[in-house]
Amino acid sequence: MGTRDGLDRQRVQALMAAERADYIARHPASARLAATAAQHLLFGVPMHWMNDWSTPFPLTVREASGARFRDADGHEYIDFCFGDTGAMFGHAPAPVAQAISRQATRGYTAMLPSEDAGPVAAELSRRFALPYWQFALSASDANRFVLRWLRAATGRDKVLVFNGCYHGTVDDVFVDLRGGLPTQRDSLLGQVHRLTDHTVVVEFNHLPALEAALAQGDIACVLAEPVMTNIGMIPPQPGYWVAAQELIRRHGALLVIDETHTISSGPGGYARAHGMRPDALVIGKPVAGGIPCAAYGFTEDLARRVERAKRSAPPGHSGIGTTLSANMFAMAAMRANLEHVMTDAAYRHMFALAKQLAEGLRAAIARRRLPWCVTQVGARTEFQFAASAPCNGSEAHAIMDSELEQVIHLYLLNRGLLITPFHNMLLVCPDTTPGDINRLLSVFDACLHELRL
After folding, report:
1. Is the domain 95-341 a CATH 3.40.640.10 member?
2. Family assignment (predicted)?
3. What is the pTM of this model?
């Protein structure tokens, strides 16, 4: 029985109606707070993405700690979303909380280096094998800054991305393939420049397309996640990155790896764990324990090229960096998180639980003979509505089923379990327990039963 052929859509819709009614009945405080907030918040929420859940109105969080959070109505939840990776190492980890508490009386920002800056850069260099670093407030900014630096360093104006990618709010990357042609995404609001003039898009895992694009000689860099995650998980095929890196080097382009999600792969990210050698690397939201912060690093050679580009440019603002970048508060949080939270032991714990979760999901799916697959990337796990993981963005988009996703998500939430709202991704953190995994698997299986799958 598939998600498009054989699935009883009336059953899906009936279950969704029942779950929405249950949510409304159980969350009067969140409903009241949402109604009050709508009087002054655009779209009724502080950021419009907060409406992208399956709930009839936003769930208001009161407090969060470790692998759990509590809402305004007093209900407790086991979190498998963690702010879509922002709190991947748990909510309010004690070392980070202590560090920001200490820093709270010592100043927040001065547009000058703090004593934490050097040790943080040294630790990032150790983990990611890139010697030079800069900081930003988000991975979006870090990716944007890296693109500017690399265009300046290479003298080339184009960036190559993969179909279906997402690298934050960087306008350059909002280009997809439609009918085999590069097309600016219709969902991108307010963009007046034609992005396809400077952005090239190809399918992930397709080496001939990558080579053909690079052969034009105008690509400054390839910006990529080592495993695509934002359209569902798309793993690289065996040998893909070995061949792709050789092509990128041969044609004089540079490789930028965005590890914001794939930091789930280990203390040094997916690239370090799999022997990749990027020219630049970006790490964002989880690196400071949820405090807004990001970092980007360069190889020795690229750092020298970037410095030459800056020094040979006319004086004035570079357009790279913001006043609050590398502020004292964020650097204190990042240092504590790197030194005491993102440890080898924490990763070992998360990997073991993610394996338990992935195996349990596969078993539940197999019992019901569903043509679904499960992909695990370290502490990150996802189930998808296809017999095997997609190879590229077009395949990933084709297997998405938002109606089915929404009902599964709301069913879990109504039973105290939160997963990411955008697809079927689940994370574990150092505070997640085997019991939490078993609870998720039990409720997931019950949901499949309710759907008569």
Report:
1. yes
2. Belongs to the class-III pyridoxal-phosphate-dependent aminotransferase family.
3. 0.96
